[in-house]
Design brief:
By secondary structure, this protein is of the alpha/beta class. It has helices spanning 4-9, 121-138; strands at residues 20-24, 29-31, 34-36, 39-42, 45-47, 50-52, 55-58, 63-65, 68-75, 78-80, 83-91, 96-98, 101-103, 105-108, 113-115, 118-120. The termini are far apart.
Length: 150
């Protein structure tokens, strides 16, 4: 059986990311906003927001207090804040999120914890489409008046 560290190494990075280029190591504390276009791994503590167009990996010892926005995320550590993910969110045993989540796909392994609200992109997009169609139906129709003198 794989241990948690082995499982973290199985993370599939998107085809444009060949390796993790930024690591906040265990024993390191960072305060502020991180903006990245490549894969980012957090094994230390981040107090602030993470904005990435790549993947974000929160290792077993990683802790984030802030909002995370990225393409995909792998959670083995702790997040206190909201998370918005374009593609895939994956929790492994021991991973914990206290906050709201919007994601494309969601995978939660036994032993992971999630305390918040969750919406998948399909549900969000479907709801938005439904709301737009509904609001268009209820909008009053205006007649276009033409000036008979013209």
């Amino acid at each position: 059986m794989f241990n948690k560290r082995d499982r973290e190494e199985e993370v599939t990075l998107s085809s444009t990311e060949k390796s993790i280029e930024t690591i906040i190591g265990e024993g390191t504390e960072f305060e502020g906003t991180i903006t990245s276009r490549t894969a980012l791994r957090v094994d230390g503590v981040v107090k602030g927001d993470i904005k990435s167009t790549g993947s974000v990996i929160i290792g077993a010892s990683g802790e984030v207090s802030g909002t995370i926005t990225s393409k995909q995320i792998f959670i083995a550590g702790t997040i206190n804040g909201n998370v918005v993910i374009e593609d895939r969110t994956e929790f492994v045993s021991g991973g914990y999120l206290h906050g709201d989540l919007i994601t494309g796909d969601l995978i939660i392994e036994k032993g992971a914890s999630f305390d918040g609200n969750c919406k998948t992109k399909n549900a969000v997009n479907g709801k938005l489409k439904e709301n737009n169609a509904h609001s268009q139906k209820n909008e009053p129709k205006t007649e276009q008046k033409t000036d008979p003198k013209i």
